[in-house]
Design goal:
485 residues; Fumarase C, Chain A, domain 2; 2 domains; two-stranded antiparallel sheet; 56% helix; 3-carboxy-cis,cis-muconate cycloisomerase; lyase; lyase activity
Length: 485
């Protein structure tokens, strides 16, 4: 029996960092790092640590067999340990006694899942950096590309595609602090009942055995490139929830981009087109179609992620005692799938944004199709205060609104009507309201608000992040954790 991902198109882009081989490698690295931590603390010979790492190659183990045997103990750590000890014994019989001592299965499983996500965060960060760079280029290139802003699905005011791209970029920038947290995920420690009794037993007769046990866990975390938690979290699952929420937020931010592309690439709008690739977007029944598959898959991911986070919250609410019963087991597939989907989505988004085609003419044509009424806010703000009440008592604002309603799609008619309505009035600077003034009021390029300022603020933030020496990959990823893979 296989699970090749037939029902998860595109998710294979995240498999290299989240598949069963990656899980096995994380579990093995956690066990090997524990032996190395003991060697650093003087509890094991250095040769044992070297042998432990040499035996920790996922390719040497049968994931399918381990999965079947995991049913016996309820988790894959138990059968893997048996195989690991056997293999290590072939390399260094003395090293076997240092494996797993003082740990419990949950310590290893939780730490391995954190390591799995930590490693997945590296391609995730690189690909988000690529997406951010592409969006920055789009924002700069199209800061003057006029487009209809849409609210509640309807044309609202003029905007620019550059500002829309800057908005997409800002959505990713808002995640930088959360994503940085994926580089500081914690090890899980506590032993059989969360008391560290097993670790303390490694320091018999030592007055400060408890402190030594904590320091041993700290060494372990350092070996893995993870952080040292403030407390035992066997049944306090905020580390898992925080991690999952970050991954889901990435999916949501990328899904927002996909939603806009899906809308604007509809043929009746035709403002955007996805990059083409051999075999992508094909239809089994309609060969003339070019479906926006990258955006479809991004939207799929954005719709899937919240349910996985909900599963993790449900599990966290069901934890009991000092070690959980069942709720813990539901976390593994949900967290792994979130990591897989987030990595795949970041790859899809990087490809989408790098190759996105922008049709400037269609954007302008669609904006012009709104007629001059799309500038009603500007016209009213400029002219209404200048007009005295009409004979029927209509205010200046009501008079302007009447003209806009009557000539909503007739630019020439509105120009004539507004010129006549405002004849004899003066702007605040003393300029007469003539045809030239009204013509300028009907130019959408003159009513873009703080377009350039808003784009500049996002681009400046992008530049600061990209040039920050304390981060890599433009603030979206961190340093590599040690691996024996």
């Amino acid at each position: 029996m296989t699970d090749a991902g037939l029902l998860r198109p595109g998710a294979h882009r995240g498999d290299a960092h989240t598949d069963d081989t990656a899980v096995l490698q994380a579990l093995l690295d956690v066990e090997a790092a524990w032996v190395a931590a003991q060697a650093d603390a003087g509890l094991a010979p250095r040769a044992a640590a070297e042998s432990a790492r040499a035996a920790a190659r996922a390719a040497d183990y049968d994931a399918g067999d381990i999965a079947r045997r995991a049913e016996g103990g309820g988790n894959p750590v138990i059968p893997l340990l048996a195989d690991y000890r056997r293999r290590l014994g072939e390399l260094d019989p003395d090293a076997v006694r240092f494996v797993h001592r003082g740990l419990t299965s949950q310590d290893v499983m939780d730490t391995a899942m954190m390591l799995l996500v930590r490693r997945a965060a590296e391609p995730l960060g690189r690909q988000l950096c690529g997406t951010a760079d592409a969006l920055a280029r789009l924002a700069q290139t199209h800061r003057g590309t006029l487009q209809a802003a849409r609210t509640l699905t309807q044309h609202a005011l003029p905007t620019t595609f550059g500002l829309k791209a800057a908005g997409w970029l800002a959505g990713l920038q808002d995640l930088e602090a959360d994503l940085a947290g994926l580089t500081r995920l914690p090890v899980s420690w506590g032993g059989a009942a969360g008391t560290l009794a097993g670790s303390i037993a490694l320091f018999p007769g030592t007055p400060d055995a408890a402190e030594q046990a904590v320091e041993l866990a700290r060494r372990w975390a350092g070996e893995l490139g993870l952080s040292m938690p403030a407390h035992v979290w066997h049944t306090s699952r905020r580390p898992v929830l925080r991690t999952a929420e970050t991954l889901a937020a990435v999916c949501a931010a990328l899904g927002r981009i996909a939603n806009d592309v899906l809308l604007l690439s509809r043929p009746e709008l035709g403002e955007l087109r996805e990059p083409a690739a051999e075999g992508r977007g094909v239809s089994s029944a309609m060969p003339q179609k070019q479906n926006p598959v990258l955006s479809v898959l991004l939207k799929r991911t954005a719709l899937t992620a919240p349910q996985l986070v909900a599963q993790l919250h449900l599990a966290a609410a069901q934890y009991v005692d000092e070690r959980p019963d069942g709720a813990w087991h539901t976390e593994w597939p949900a967290l792994r799938e979130l990591a897989r989907l987030a990595v795949a989505a970041s790859s899809h988004a990087a490809e989408l944004t790098a190759g996105l085609t922008v049709d400037l003419a269609r954007m302008r044509a669609n904006l012009d199709a709104s007629g001059p009424a799309v500038l009603a806010e500007r016209i009213s703000a400029a002219l209404a205060p200048l007009l005295p009440p009409a004979a029927d008592g209509a205010t200046g604002k009501q008079q302007v609104q009447a003209v806009v309603r009557e000539h909503a799609s007739d630019r020439q008619g509105m120009l004539d009507a507004l010129e006549g309505l405002a004849a004899g009035t003066l702007l605040a600077d003393g300029t007469p309201v003539d045809r030239g003034v009204v013509t300028r009021l009907l130019d959408p390029a003159g009513y873009l608000g703080a377009n350039d300022l808003l784009i500049d603020r996002v681009l400046e933030r992008h530049d600061r992040s990209a040039n920050d020496p304390s981060t890599t990959s433009g603030g979206y990823a961190g340093t590599s954790a040690r691996s024996t893979a």
